[in-house]
Amino acid sequence: MRPTLSIPPFKYSGEIIAPASKSVLQRAIAIASLQPRKTIITGYTPSNDVEAALEIASRIGASWEINDRELQIIGTKNVDLETIEINCGEAGLSTRMFAPIVATLSRQCSISGEGSLLYRPLPGIIDALEQLGTRVKSNNEKLPIFTEGKAQAQNISIDGSHSSQLLTGLLIALSHQPLKTKISVSNLKSIPYAQMTLDLLQEFGIHIENREFKEFVIPPFNPSLTQDIHIHAEGDWSGAAFHVVGAAISGKVKLLGLDINSSQADMQIIHAIDKAGARWSWNQEEKSITVEKNQLNAFEFDATHCPDLFPPLAVLAANCKGTSVIHGTHRLTHKESNRALTIQEELSRLDIAVELENNTMKIHGFPVHSGSISSRNDHRIAMMGATFAAVSKAPIIIEKPSAVQKSYPSFFNDIEPMFSNISN
Ligand SMILES: O=C(O)C1=C[C@@H](OP(=O)(O)O)[C@@H](O)[C@H](O)C1
Ligand SMILES: C=C(OP(=O)(O)O)C(=O)O
């Protein structure tokens, strides 16, 4: 992809099929790799994070093949490795999820990553791995991480205030061990993501007792289950959130492939556009959601447990009458960029004022004419910039647009058919 991409003014119209959720796919790949049976995952679409998870699955010893939108994985049995090296690409989830998994499979582990992931602190991982009995070296709590000594299944306590992703990894790792264990978690954030992990483990026949997201009781693994598992990777509400907002501010769109009963945190985007006054409807027969433009007014929203919604919420807020207030900015410091600051600085290039105070972002609605946005190699910032072109008078230039490969490689292709509809 070129270093910049010019998105002409356009208006949302027609239909888009949502890509698969990378959160669902990375989890399903991790669990399937640890199961001595075949898992068939439908709805597959590629992205860099998911491909990093597949590469790690191969390192663990799982085999897999992709036919069109179907991914089949044959997992491993009794893995006992001397050493393993994994590269998590730029995926925060794969790093925090696979770290405890590989530590239970191998006496020595080397965990590395690329790009923005090298700058993201991973608080809690080292302490958790040490609690499980490994010796850990890291680059000041960042990648690369090296472990020595196989992690042993035992009860563990973690701090959940920075991220839910380590909990996801521990739930998956410990539920594939022969002993009953317990995880205690304090101050868990991104709670729906932990629920998604529990739901997926349940689909594999693993029931974890959840005591109000503070304590999780994990049964010993039952390796005698051999029946094939069928999983559907539902459409991604996180990527679709940009289209939901794009339609709410400019026109109308029908989105297919999403589940209105999803456990995905970012389905909350519907409540946000609803609060702002947009029109939307769900068609149960077709399983589609249609979102339509309306007069939009400032809204207040708490995104503490759905932090990835900040970039699309920023577009929504900038197009509402009045000042919108979004809570939960503390959750954004260690994403692919320092996202609250990135949103503030990049929106100032479009003359949109964003105030950051304590844990809150305030955005003043203001018409957008034209301008440039740098993704800073953060996929959600690239998509945020492009969505502004749905209301701009002249093109929006996206610097470093290839960031979208991380979660939604077809994002620009999906909006391109609308470019002949000039918005204003
Ligand atoms: O488990 C997941 O799939 C994710 C959890 C969230 O991270 P945190 O738990 O670190 O907030 C989210 O921001 C990330 O994009 C995906
Ligand atoms: C923060 C994100 O993902 P991860 O932490 O898995 O890299 C994201 O997709 O916005």
Automatic annotation (TrEMBL):
Keyword check for Ribosomal protein: no
Protein family membership: Belongs to the EPSP synthase family.
CDD domains recorded: EPSP_synthase
Active site: D308 (proton acceptor)
Subcellular location as annotated: Cytoplasm
Residue ranges constituting the Enolpyruvate transferase domain according to the UniProt record: 12-414
Protein name per its UniProtKB record: 3-phosphoshikimate 1-carboxyvinyltransferase
Gene3D superfamilies registered for this protein in UniProt: Enolpyruvate transferase domain
Record function comment: Catalyzes the transfer of the enolpyruvyl moiety of phosphoenolpyruvate (PEP) to the 5-hydroxyl of shikimate-3-phosphate (S3P) to produce enolpyruvyl shikimate-3-phosphate and inorganic phosphate.
Reaction catalyzed: 3-phosphoshikimate + phosphoenolpyruvate = 5-O-(1-carboxyvinyl)-3-phosphoshikimate + phosphate
Residues at which 3-phosphoshikimate binds: K22, S23, R27, S163, S164, Q165, S190, D308, K335
Keywords for this protein: Amino-acid biosynthesis, Aromatic amino acid biosynthesis, Cytoplasm, Transferase
